[in-house]
Structure formats: C-alpha cells, structure tokens
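User: I'm writing a tutorial on reading structure tokens. Could you give me a worked example: one chain, its sequence, then its tokens, then a sentence or two explaining what the tokens reveal?
Assistant: Sure. Here is the example chain.
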Amino acid sequence: MLRNLIMNLIKNGLIKKKLTQDSIKTFIRAFVISRLDSNNALYCGLPSYLLDKLQRVQNSAARLVSGCSRRSHITPVLEKLHWLPIRQRVTYNLCFLVFKSLNAMSPQYPLQQHKPHELSGHQHGTFLVYHQ
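And here are its predicted structure tokens:
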C-alpha cells in the first residue's frame, strides 16, 4: 500500500501543473488521505519506523497540496490543512470509533459480539471493558 501511495504522489507531482489548487486538494484527499484513514485501526501498535513511513507519505501529500518546498517545516502546513499527524490521527479515529460504538451511533454487530464487564480502579473509578 505504501509503495502505491508514493507512486501516486510522484505521478500527481507530474500533473500538478495542469490542475487547480482546489482540484489538487480534492485529489489528494480522495486518493492518499482516504487510504491512510481506511486502515487506521491496523496502525495502532505499529513500530515507530513504520508509522514514520506513513508520516512521510502524509508529509509529501501536504507539500504537494500546499506547494511548499521539501525543506520547509511541515507542522504549520499540516495545521493549515487541518490534518492531524499520523499518530494522533490513529488515536483520534480509534477513540471516535469506540465513542460511536458505545453511544449506539454505529452498526450493532460489534456490540452484539461483546458483553460489557464492569471493572473498578483505585484512581480511575468504574469503567466498562468489553470481552467476548
């Protein structure tokens, strides 16, 4: 998957001169950012070197969209685009998925497979953990 994303970015760089800035943003969001988000749950617990590769793909996409140089700092560019870095993106999307599951905003099949068990902790109070 990573190789395909990089190849798409290279090809996009070649046709960048023929597209408007809005078209480039739409194209990158559709083909690169959506791919990064589609497997988000699998990225949880990956080693840092693999997450760094994904971060480089996102950074390249941000540079392509913004038109900034390779040497410019990427954090302000990501902030301007309202894109979270990969590690924070994974955390956010997993938390959002759990929130939707617990508040009946998602399909019921994940909750039907698991039964809640109540645990109590000394410092954290009572919370639910789902087991099969």
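What the tokens reveal: The chain has one domain: 2-131. The first helix runs from residue 2 to 15.
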